Amino acid sequence: MSITAPADWKSAPAPSDAEGWIARAAEVAAVLASDAAARDKAAATPYAEVRLLKEAGLVTLLGPVEHGGAGQDWPTAYRVVREVAKADGSIGQLLGYHYLWNWAARLVGTREQWEHVEAEAARNQWFFGGAVNPRDADVVVRDEGDTLTFTGRKTFSTGSKVSDVTVLEGVLEGTDDHVFAIVPSDSEGLTFHDDWDNIGQRLTESGGVTLDAVRVPWSAAAGYVDKRFQPRVYNTLNVPTIQLVFVNFYLGIAAGALETAAAYTRTKTRPWLHGGHERAVDEPYVIDVYGDLTAKLWAVEALADAVAAEGQKLHDDPDAVTETARGEFEVRVAAVKARATDVALEVTNGIFEVTGARATASAEGLDRFWRNVRTHTLHDPVAYKRREVGRHVLTGELPQPTWYS
What DSSP state is assigned to residue 73? Predict the structure, then answer.
């Protein structure tokens, strides 16, 4: 297995607009697609894949231009994630999470903090991981004068060993206050465990992590001034922002499944012996299934793009974000998350109806698309996303900001 970047990436100018960056992401996907099934089976740590993302310039897509970034917006980032995920859902997830954690300083931190982080990240091509799983208060943050220490364990830490820096999260001892901080991934006391062995998203390095008094200066505690957190409504936009990341790599995986299956049907699927057709592509039911699944996917993609554009308006003016605007955006995100989940599962399962029994061969790797979607869509129950939408429609209620809404 070899991952080699196209030679013209070094000689040609970097893309200058959204279309160019989406095209660059498609080039990355073409490289990844060449051995995606074999890499999924091997489940090796994706060092080469992350290096490819860096060489392509995708890692600094959202970074400031003056420090070497591309200066692109979130709708473009979502489309880039979708393109990469067509070939490899794991790498699409890694890239999408990276974008969120790179942006976390802006979401939570002070202007001085996020300007520093974004400049350093762009200049050094930092790849971000995150030890942030706030469902349990499993990491204690202790105030030790000029510094803080993070101690505990997180069950999931996506990006772990392939990251340059890691976002930590814990609860300040004696309070209910959460603290976020960015540390080098090789920090003393930070130990990543090789215990990610799930049926899907096998290359995301999402195993557990132990924190043993990882030391951070108070100045690195995002959003804290004189040891007191400075709250903004914009702080709570982290959830809908990353939920849209989920949406887009689900849609990318589904699109990749359809493209791969269609190629298989054109070249390998045999027509049914009682159907009266010489080619599988002429079978009426095969045509109907591809048409049905494609129409459903296109509809959700259009909704995802519309919701991403709505969210960008909030990112454009963070200090003006109101609780109402945030809540209405979360409802829209919940709606597209619910539809993307259902359609991605339907597509990745339905392709087997039109590829045939031989398509289940391990060498074809068609099962990876379903395994990837099935694994990550369990992140949080989709029924609760539909509930957010239903309650808003019936009563006008807006979701209260939580770690999942």
Answer: -
CATH second-level architecture of 129-229? Beta Barrel (2.40)
CB 128 within 8 Å of CB 159 = yes
Range with the lowest mean pLDDT among 128-137, 158-167, 197-206, 208-217? Answer: 128-137
| pTM to 2 decimal places | 0.97
142 vs 158, 161, 180, 227, 239, CA distance in Å? 24, 25, 13, 12, 26
- Within 10 angstroms of residue 281's Cβ, the number of other Cβ atoms is 16
Rg (CA), the chain: 22
What tokens were used for 35? 């051995």
342-378 pLDDT per residue, tens: 999 999 999 999 999 999 999 999 999 999 999 999 9
325/346 Cα distance (integer angstroms): 32
Q: In 152-283, which ranges are continuous DSSP H helix?
A: 238-267
394 vs 333: CA distance, rounded Å: 18
CB contact at 8 A, 404 and 349: no
pLDDT tens by residue, 296-321: 999 999 999 999 999 999 999 999 99
CB atoms within 10 A of CB 374: 17
Nearest Cα residue to 338 out of 287, 383, 393, 301: 383
Segment 151-206, tens digit of pLDDT: 999 988 999 999 999 999 999 999 999 999 999 999 999 999 989 999 999 999 99
- Measured between alpha carbons, how far is 277 from 218 in angstroms, rounded to an integer? 71
Q: What is the fold of 233-395?
A: Butyryl-CoA Dehydrogenase, subunit A; domain 3 (1.20.140)
CATH code of domain 8-127 = 1.10.540.10
- Domain boundaries, given as residue ranges, for the chain: 8-127, 129-229, 233-395
Q: How confident is the model at residue 119 (pLDDT cuts 50, 70, 90)?
A: very high
